[in-house]
Write a structure and sequence with these properties.
The complex is a heterodimer of chains A (about 70) and B (about 240). With about 70 residues, chain A is mainly alpha-helical. Chain A is built from four helices and one strand, in the order βαααα. Chain B has a domain of about 170 residues. The chains are: A mainly alpha (about 70), B mainly alpha (about 240).
């Protein structure tokens, strides 16, 4: 008995869920490295985080090196 | 589309390229950051806000070591972030990008994104080392910089739509239109309000190294994403009937 197989390769579009997830990663990462002034840690630390600027200080050198405005 | 595979290769390529960016910066950018922070320290001593003591330098040295470690970690975070945007744009534009393999396509796209999202905004608002920026103006400068990136990026997308609709012999008009649009934006956007008081040799050499570091990121991201996409083809689905 003879039969043939048809192999079909299709190129599909990216699912919107993946795009949305990557968009969140993009916005969050950009904010953390480029713009956080204590905002993230203030969620748990409160107003003290704006004085300590832990994330700002940690990303400080990359912030300057990548061209983001800093002090 | 293999969703999980797509997300993984995009995030991994961005994180790796960002880590490379951070490591490269340790070699080429950090010496200038150290010089600039040295000027800040001298200003603190002269203003009487700090004392030039062995204890100060011990604490300063430990702190700078920690910040240099942060350079690599921040590189990985920023790389993952920018890599995510790169992956999104690549997924939507892969079919229309010229080139017969994924590495050529990712290189071309990385070049376009480097130019429109980094170099053009940089020419208006170039990177500055510490001592240049005024803390009072940081929010304004952040808004200006991000706005210019968004205007340039969305402008490029808009003029690409124009490019698609134009006849072959006048497609160049879309590039001319983008150049005119960006030129006008360049003139109309307010300048960086901060006066540069640091030595210009230091500032200019820092800026060159900053551009080199970011360029290394885009090249690395293009190579890794292109190779992983070519090898794993997250957008390809094979069915046997």
């Amino acid at each position: 008995m003879r039969y043939t197989e048809q192999v079909t390769s299709t190129v599909s579009k990216p699912p919107m869920l993946a795009i949305a997830l990557l968009a969140v990663v993009f916005a969050f990462g950009l904010f953390i490295v480029g713009y956080d002034q204590g905002h993230l840690f203030s969620i748990v630390q409160g107003a003290e985080a704006y004085e300590e600027l832990y994330m700002h200080e940690m990303t400080h050198d990359m912030r300057h090196a990548a061209g983001f405005p800093c002090h | 589309m293999k969703t999980l595979l797509f997300i993984l290769i995009v995030l991994i390529s961005g994180a790796l390229a960002g880590t490379v960016h951070g490591i490269v910066n340790l070699g080429i950018v950090e010496p200038y950051l150290d010089q600039a922070i040295g000027i800040e320290n001298q200003n603190l001593f002269e203003a009487g806000k700090e004392e030039d003591t062995p204890q100060f330098w011990a604490e300063y040295s430990a702190y700078r070591d920690w910040q240099k470690g942060g350079q690599v970690l921040a590189g990985a975070i920023l790389g993952t972030s920018i890599g995510a945007l790169f992956g999104i744009v690549y997924a939507f534009s892969r079919q229309i990008l010229p080139g017969n393999n994924d590495v050529k396509k990712t290189f071309l796209l990385a070049g376009i994104m480097w130019f429109t999202l980094y170099l053009i905004p940089f020419l208006k608002y170039p990177a500055n080392p510490p001592t240049v920026g005024d803390g009072e103006t940081v929010v304004l400068r952040a808004i200006l910089y991000l706005s210019f990136i968004a205007i340039s990026g969305f402008g490029a997308v808009g003029f690409y739509q124009v490019y698609k609709r134009l006849k072959q012999n006048i497609k160049v008009l879309a590039l001319v239109g983008y150049a005119a649009f960006i030129g006008m934006t360049f003139v109309l956007m307010p300048p960086n309000p901060d006066e540069v008081t640091a030595p210009m040799d230091l500032v200019n050499e820092f800026r060159i190294m900053s551009v080199l570091g970011v360029t290394v990121f885009w090249i690395t991201a293009a190579v890794i994403l292109g190779m992983l996409w070519h090898k794993l083809r997250p957008d390809s689905e094979i069915s046997i009937k």
